[in-house]
Design brief:
A six-stranded parallel sheet has the order 1-2-3-4-5-6. Strand 1, helix 9 and strand 2 form a beta-alpha-beta unit. 36% of the residues lie in helices and 5% in strands. It is mainly alpha-helical. It is flat.
Length: 390
């Protein structure tokens, strides 16, 4: 067994130090203190915790500087010493007041600066407002195209019933820089204002679904013209808020309104007039609209052009006047015998050469049922088309 290797140790006396060891700063300081050396009096002692800044969220508030306290408390002292009139002025500076219509049309207001080039029209409007003929004043503003959000806001408490914000200028009318619809319609989104406003015309004005949402709080809206406004199906859902008041709706020339908008009209039970010219409604959707969704008594005052063309030439698609002895109810087709099915299809094939007479009984049932269903749907469309007999 090999011998264990022993570690070599160097032993030093208390009075001696290792020749290669350098005294550390701590040992040197301790040695200096033991030997009686003191730091010079010219070097002041540093108080480590006296000048440190406490955190702002500290619970101890004694660190707050007296000078800063005097600066912060100075405004408070001035407020306490201020008079009652100074307090009133402070509150009135934060309050926004709406001036009456007469004040808006005065030359001292900001609205007049936008319309100062039409001073003759302003004088005429002032005279109408003075006589409290607010509807006539609004009509003059519409003819000249002078509507602004600030001016519209001033009519909120009047008896205004019709508001025409269409973009097409009238002959001889003046024009001002166009205002985004979101800003122009913003004053209408206010509770307990425009309580008598029943007609809004936005023809040829590009609006978004959010702009239509600004009309939700109008309590008396019954006629809404959205012709050529670029709206889509989503915008129509905001009209459900007017289900008890809306009677006349014009959504013509909006190609983004499709068949998916059909269920919305079920939520408008008081609707009496609907304009659909220029929309993307398909003919099958129009048939289902008049049968399932259109409120009773509602009239279709316009239709897409291709639907009008089809209805005018429907005698080329099937037999319009079915004689006695032939089936007119599509629900009875399924129980018919095969010879009876072919006999009825032959009647329609005389008017439409594209009707096939061959195939299985299932094919013939489906074919005859489709013809009779289309015939009933087209008759329903024609029945609600136009203003009807007075």
């Amino acid at each position: 067994m090999p011998l264990k290797r022993t570690r070599k140790l160097d032993v030093f006396n208390d009075s001696t130090e290792p020749p290669s060891a350098r005294p550390s700063p701590r040992n040197a300081k301790r040695k200096r203190i033991d030997s009686g050396d003191q730091p010079s009096a010219s070097q002041p002692k540093r108080h480590a915790l006296e000048d440190k800044t406490r955190a702002a969220n500290s619970r101890d508030t004694s660190f707050r500087d007296i000078k800063q306290e005097s600066i912060d408390d100075k405004p408070l002292k001035q407020e306490k010493k201020g008079s009652a009139s100074g307090t009133e002025s402070l509150h009135t500076s934060c309050t926004i007041t709406i001036s009456p219509v007469q004040d808006v049309l005065k030359p001292s207001t900001g609205i007049f600066k936008q319309l100062e080039s039409h001073s003759s029209d302003i004088h005429h409007i002032q005279s109408l407002v003075t006589e409290e003929k607010f509807q006539e004043a609004a009509d003059v503003i519409t003819q000249k195209g002078l509507w602004t959000p600030e001016l519209l806001a001033e009519f909120g408490t009047t008896d205004l019933t019709t508001l025409d914000l269409s973009s097409s200028p009238t002959p001889g009318g003046f024009s001002i820089p166009t205002v985004p619809s979101s800003l122009l319609l913003a004053p209408l989104f206010t509770q307990h204002r425009y309580t008598k406003l029943s007609t809004i015309i936005l023809r040829n004005t590009i609006v978004s679904p959010d702009d239509i949402a600004l009309l939700r709080v109008l309590p008396s809206l019954s006629i809404l013209d959205l012709c050529s406004t670029g709206i889509n199906n989503h915008a129509l859902y905001y009209l459900v808020c007017h289900s008890h008041t809306l009677t006349n709706l014009n959504i013509s020339n909006n190609e983004r309104i499709t068949d998916d908008a059909r269920p919305i009209f079920s939520a408008l039970p008081n609707l009496t007039a609907l304009y659909l010219r220029g929309t993307s409604f398909s003919l099958p959707a129009l048939r289902r609209l008049v049968i399932e969704n259109l409120p009773k008594g509602c009239r279709l005052l316009s239709l897409p052009s291709y639907a009008i063309d089809f209805l005018n030439n429907r005698h080329e698609k099937y037999c319009v006047e079915i004689p006695q002895g032939y089936i007119t109810d599509p629900a009875k087709v399924e129980n018919m015998a095969l010879p009876v099915l072919k006999r009825n299809l032959e009647l329609h094939a005389k008017f439409n050469k594209g009707v096939q007479l061959t195939g299985t009984k299932v094919d013939l049932v489906h074919r005859l049922r489709a013809l009779l269903s289309n015939r009933i749907g087209d008759e329903r469309i024609i029945g609600v088309l136009g203003r009807g007999s007075s």
